[in-house]
């Protein structure tokens, strides 16, 4: 493995400068946030798909006239709920 991931396994973190340690910590935080977002999107997709699209009903790779609005509304409600939660968390933080 010649990529970045293979080389990082051999890095002695104690030899990094404080600035480099801070950058590495921020990178790890950012990657964790990306993973949580991806997990939420996967969960949303799975939930809405199971709710709106009965097994085996997709034809020609397209949603029918009932499935498409159901998926759109499902995603919209999920996003609305997330916005409400984020606003409340922000309010509690202040």
From TrEMBL:
It comes from the Eukaryota. One of its GO terms (biological process) is protein transport. Residues 26-90 form the Tim10-like domain. One of its GO terms (cellular component) is mitochondrial inner membrane. It is found in: Mitochondrion inner membrane. It is a peripheral membrane protein. Keywords: Chaperone, Disulfide bond, Membrane, Mitochondrion, Mitochondrion inner membrane, Protein transport, Translocation, Transport. Its main location: mitochondrion. Belongs to the small Tim family. Heterohexamer. The twin CX3C motif contains 4 conserved Cys residues that form 2 disulfide bonds in the mitochondrial intermembrane space. Mitochondrial intermembrane chaperone that participates in the import and insertion of some multi-pass transmembrane proteins into the mitochondrial inner membrane. Also required for the transfer of beta-barrel precursors from the TOM complex to the sorting and assembly machinery (SAM complex) of the outer membrane. Acts as a chaperone-like protein that protects the hydrophobic precursors from aggregation and guide them through the mitochondrial intermembrane space. This is Mitochondrial import inner membrane translocase subunit. It comes from Didymella heteroderae. The gene is TIM8.
């Amino acid at each position: 493995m010649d990529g970045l991931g293979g080389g990082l396994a051999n890095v002695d973190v104690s030899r990094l400068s404080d600035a480099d340690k801070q950058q590495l910590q921020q990178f790890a935080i950012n990657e964790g946030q990306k993973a949580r977002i991806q997990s939420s999107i996967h969960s949303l997709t799975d939930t809405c798909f199971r709710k709106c699209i009965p097994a085996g009903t997709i034809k020609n790779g397209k949603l029918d006239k009932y499935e498409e609005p159901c998926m759109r509304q499902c995603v919209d409600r999920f996003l609305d709920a997330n916005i409400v939660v984020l606003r409340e968390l922000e309010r509690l933080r202040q």
